Amino acid sequence: MSLLRRPSRLTSLWELESSDEESTFQDDQQMSKHSFPREEFEKMKEKTRQGCPSIDPEIRPDFTALLKIFSSDKLLRQAAIFAGTRKINEKIVDHFHTTWKHPMHMGVPNVEFVSFMMSDRKVCQRFDEYMSELLLILDDPHVKPLWHGTTIKCKFDDKPCDPSSTDCCAGCNILSKGFDISKSGSANPFKRFGSGIYFAPNSSKAHSYATPRGGSDDLFTILFCFVALGRCHTTTDDMPHLTDAPYPCHSVHGRVGTRLNYEEFVIYRPDAVVPFAAVTYRMDKW
């Protein structure tokens, strides 16, 4: 399935027609006709995160394609809560810009498009099972939208890697098959919090782990993920010996301190995360 301009294994829900400035407007009167009705969203917010209504394509037209990509109802509920009254792709773009906190001496990021790849159904299935496991002991599984920077060698927008190929690049491999804990540290041997999968709340921090795409020197892609953190162990100290979160926690939260300038989160089970989308952007020079 593809909704891009060119044939591809990737899917995009909309062309990003509105400008960055337009996408940041929150006023009701500025919402596009495809936005989710505010009164319906207010009703959703009155319910708990676990009990909110299932996503109905007729109510949320922005989720029509997502229902064909992701088989996890729990994941789509989290995505609906994240999107609020916004179209999901516009919300992701806005989130990309608002969470970019690093100095812009290297350039200014401008989003080209948001893409979605059809993932293995097992990725959603194991996420659902892990969420159910967390809900047995926690009132809130603590799902956060987080960023992950990785290596993407292909052009991605018009010719992504074949997931069945042994030459599939890291980004396409993650989007199609999910994260693999055995690949921890393959790009960066220094493991501040041990052998886990690392995420950042700041898009700019994830960018520091991304590589230029498809032979270009100014085009990058980072991954937007939903991560079930469960109970976090918060620290400002390095813990490179970890292979799991300290008991009774499920993840590690590295706070800003003497070791970190920007916070990060680490999980030790790949079933705690679903790679949801890829954001491709160009770094424009000043």
UniProtKB/TrEMBL annotation:
It catalyses: NAD(+) + (ADP-D-ribosyl)n-acceptor = nicotinamide + (ADP-D-ribosyl)n+1-acceptor + H(+). Its EC number is 2.4.2.30. The keyword Ligase does not apply. One of its GO terms (cellular component) is nucleolus. The keyword Transferase applies. Residues 173-277 form the PARP catalytic domain. Keywords: Glycosyltransferase, NAD, Transferase. GO terms for molecular function: NAD+ poly-ADP-ribosyltransferase activity; NAD+-protein mono-ADP-ribosyltransferase activity. Pfam families: PARP. PANTHER family: DNA LIGASE (PTHR10459), POLY [ADP-RIBOSE] POLYMERASE 2 (PTHR10459:SF60). This is NAD(+) ADP-ribosyltransferase. It comes from Funneliformis mosseae. The lineage of its organism: Eukaryota, Fungi, Fungi incertae sedis, Mucoromycota, Glomeromycotina.
